[in-house]
Design goal:
The chain contains five helices and no strands. The N and C termini lie far apart (37 Å). It is an all-alpha fold and 111 residues long. The chain has a single domain, classed as Helix Hairpins, CATH 1.10.287. Helices cover 76% and strands 0% of the residues. This is NTP pyrophosphohydrolase MazG-like domain-containing protein.
Length: 111
């Protein structure tokens, strides 16, 4: 199933509304909302790192019993990042386009 950026953005808006209804004391304040999502991003990044280690059989033996899905963890990082962008009114499409242009410019300098 293919998903486009608009569908992902719509899901993120729905998820933010859902989180706000679950945790109104936290999500009614922008600063707290962004801090909460930033902490969540750190957690999800750690889980992605663990999944990468597991994928390459580099996970410590004490943690090797936990099965991790690298695709799921990568998706979690993307969704939480987009939640932060939504909270801060960052247009992710514009941000990505600008970043890609910048990276292509760097690539041209590397030749």
């Amino acid at each position: 199933m293919t998903m486009n950026l608009t569908e992902l953005q719509d899901f993120v808006k729905e998820e933010l509304a859902h989180l706000t209804s679950l945790y109104p004391e936290l999500y009614s304040d922008l600063e707290k909302r962004v801090y909460a999502q930033t902490v969540k991003l750190s957690e999800e990044t750690g889980e992605l790192s663990e999944a990468v280690l597991h994928h390459f059989n580099r996970l410590r033996k004490s943690k090797s019993g936990k099965t991790t899905c690298i695709e799921e963890e990568a998706a979690d990082v993307i969704i939480v990042t987009m939640l932060i962008c939504e909270c801060l009114d960052i247009n992710i499409e514009t941000a990505l386009r600008n970043k890609i242009t910048k990276l292509k410019g760097r690539r041209a300098l590397d030749r």
